[in-house]
Amino acid sequence: MNTTSTATTPSAATTPSTDAVEPSPAAAGAAPDPERVIGEARGRIDELDARIIRLVRERMEVSSRIQHARIAAGGRRVHLSREMEVLSRFRAELGGPGTTLAMTLLELSRGRV
Question: Structure pTM?
Answer without folding.
Answer: 0.67
